[in-house]
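Q: Two folds, back to back.
A: First:
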Amino acid sequence: MNTAEPRQRVPRVAWNDASVTGHLARGEPIVLVGGCPLIAAVVGRWSFDSLSAAFGERDCSVHVSRTENFARLYGHGLGLGGVRQMPFRSFVEAASQRGTGSHETDLNYYLQVPLVSPGAAQSTPVALEAELRDLGWAWLHSACEAAASQPLQALQLWAGHGVGMTPCHFDAMDNFLAQLEGRKSVLVYPPHCSFDLYPYPTGHPADNFAMADPERPDLGRWPGLARATALEAELAPGDVLWLPRYHWHLVRQVPDACGGEHPPPFSPNLSLSAWVGGKGTEAFRAEADAAYAAAKLAEAAEAVVEAEDIEFAAECASHRAAALRAFHAARLVETIAAKLLRSQVEGGAFLTALAAGADASWPAGSSARRAARRIRLQLAHLLGSEANAAALLRATTQHGRLAGAAPPCE
């Protein structure tokens, strides 16, 4: 992981240590070590050879890129690359031929395929059904109860060749990321760092990804990134990272020692993600609906006081629930503004103007003034005060985040 300075580590704790339950309940990332039952039965059994045989000719989704960046979304203004369908053995063959000189061998590959997806047509290869039964389902159920995160949403397999990274993003479900073969390095940012990572505007195809790159920080463009504090997790075979929802993370495969070779040698990398729980927005949405109904048209302008921003940021940093509430509120208000202005860009400009207090000088009774007041009151209901509402507007629009900073995409 390319970092400017040493980072604190995600705690590594024996899977059966008494403290694990507390970490799960508090929504704190943790690396479970010492033979976690979730994958203990298949570590060392699953390999590229065994999975090639198990999947046979069944097609899998494989991300293909000429860079090390697997953005998951490809096209103009998004990532460079695409997704191909190919059997597992074809993925292995293509990945193992990298660097041999042909046009196709300049590519990097990253396979992802669901193994279990409750409620959908079962996708498990017949040859893997017995081995999947050997996973630690009882342990997973107990861990999910401790984390108040039910039910299982999907079990997904990741396969790479030791090169590649998924850019910094968040997921709306909890994840037990289990390493089967090879190594991964993961940067983890708590939810209160969301605004300092500069998420793509809500409604953008990549709106769960950060525009700022923690590995190559451009503090001239994204100065808030200097405030974002990451933890780092190193995953070896048998390790399981508990990654609570809405924690930002950047995942990089770590190749075997290659002595400076370029490209690095073929280095099989296998992981499983057990996605559990829901988005956790049900209670928030109910409150948001109530706040919207309660918001009344009025005139006022909040004072722009930096001390309020510091107090608001401190509250979010010390309370995970407050950070999640602020993040959901920001996404909600971005959606509302885009609908009001019938444009994501115009909605962003509108919120940027509100953050600067420009609405105080807009004509009384104008539709823009009324819309501004409604948004401020709705945020105040959700966040507890008009000062917090003003602080959130400044945080979510800081440094031109919504004013055309995101590239157009197709």
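A: Second:
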Amino acid sequence: MSTLLSIFVILKSCSCINPGQDPVTRKNVEQKVKEQAPLRLEEPGTCLYPRTPVTMDVLNLDPYWFEAKNLRSGLIDPKPDCFVLKVVCGNDTLWESVNGWECTHAFFHCSEMRKLVVIGVERAKRGFYKALLKQQGERWKEIPMINVDTLAFEIDREQ
């Protein structure tokens, strides 16, 4: 008990060493981090990781923010120091973040006649995929994920 009391006295005196400054608490540290950089909240109560919010344009990837792992597979990953809040294809918005969801990767297959984009989205440890297809002269439409493999293969053969 006396050890606990002495620890309390030491901690209390440490917060008084720098008058006018806030004591070091989790809340104060989190507030200072929030003021310095955009954040990604993994889950309630976990550490914060500062990253830059970006928009992914699948037709015009910025190599500073994105990596195309393999042009044949069409896999696009954001680099670790950013997170994707919006996915576009030229002037068309394909997906936009709501309630903390972010795009973690995308697959893009394109021919003269069709474009296929599959967007991987996560929030904390939950995730889902959204597949969109645009035929020549038509608007983007969401398609079932079960059709993606066949369409990607067909589009790659059209090139």
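Q: And?
A: Confidence is low (pLDDT under 50) at residues 2-22, 33-47.
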